[in-house]
Amino acid sequence: MTTATTREAPHHNTLTCVKDYNCWLPACRDRYKAYQRTRYHAITAGTWEPLVDAAPVRQHLTRLYAAGFSPNRIGELTNLPYETVIGFTQVHGFSGKRRSRKRRCNPETAAKILAIQPGEHLPGKTDATGTRRRIQALVAAGWPLSHLGPRFGLSERTTGALLTQDRVYGRTAEKVTRVYNELSDQKPAKHGISRRSITRSKARAQRNRWATIGYWATRADAIDDPHFTPDYKVTKAEILAEETRWLIETVGLTRTEVAERLGKDRSYIDRVLLQADVKAAA
Q: Helix, strand or coil for residue 173?
């Protein structure tokens, strides 16, 4: 169901979802079992090399960045999480949870990154999900767009437009990511931003229910995932309304049948749907 999907592990293309999230999707379990079989046979044959030197990967990434590729774009081409890509070239994470640059990595990850050749792929545009969320989180922390724009190398108007775009240039996404990492644990007031501007920025974020830096700090892998729906300040009634719509539109149940399945009164189902419609129209 839609609601349940947003609460699964952000990525289902590596072993992480099984190891860290105990994912039970059949495809993920099959991939994990295949990995374990390969590992067992390699260990038995004495050829098991789980990790390789990350230096060649880091050097290659440096060349890709110089050619205009952003970590987001590289993630798209390799199907690797953003955190995995930046982990080769920079200290990442948030205060108290920072990780040093990778010194070793698994051969499969190295091969995927080393296979990218600038002449075969264009930096182009990348999904704007992570860019939007990072800007929103900074605004929620009190950073006004008029201050963020120059840091991104953009005007305030262009920065505001990024909040409505589906795709952005890779270099823009990279700049926003870099500034976000720099400002994520700093206070706007210490950079000369007035209390009034900070209050207005926070109020704007609250009206739009934009997730905060603290929210994304516990979901680092999800901030760039367009399939992950933040549940920041989502009420139980809104979750129920979303669940109800999914059952009606996808499964084909009536409102009465939905009420019976969810263990709710029909009148309550009608009320949460009405409230959701009113908010959507506001």
A: helix
3-state secondary structure of 43: helix
Tokens 């409505």 label which residue? 164
Q: Using CA atoms, how far apart are residues 117 and 63, in angstroms rounded to an integer?
A: 10
φ/ψ of 125, rounded to 5, equals -105, 155
Phi/psi at 126 (5° precision): -130, 165
**Looking at the DSSP assignment, which residues form a beta bridge with residue 167?**
127
Cα 144 from Cα 138, distance rounded (Å): 8
125, β-bridge pairs = 169
DSSP structural state of residue 172:
H
pLDDT digits (tens, 9 = 90+) for 170-197: 778 888 999 999 999 899 999 999 999 9
Evaluate whether 140 touches 164 at the Cβ level (below 8 Å): no
Alpha helix positions (H), 162-265: 170-183, 195-208, 213-217, 236-246, 255-262
- 3-class SS at 211? coil
Q: What was the pLDDT predicted at 1? A: 40
**CA 69, CA 62: separation in Å to the nearest integer?**
9
More confident residue, 20 or 252: 252
What is the average pLDDT across 203-228? 86
What is the pTM assigned to this prediction? 0.50
> Quick one: CA dihedral 68, 73, 77, 78, positive or negative?
positive
What angle, 0 to 180 degrees and rounded to 10, lies between the N-to-C axes of helices 170-183 and 145-152?
120
CA-based end-to-end distance of the chain: 26
Contact by Cβ (8 Å): 188, 147: yes
pLDDT, mean of residues 213-226: 85
DSSP 93: S
Q: Under a CB-based contact definition with an 8 Å cutoff, are residues 180 and 140 in contact?
A: no
CB atoms within 10 A of CB 255: 14
Q: 177 — phi, psi (to 5°)?
A: -65, -45
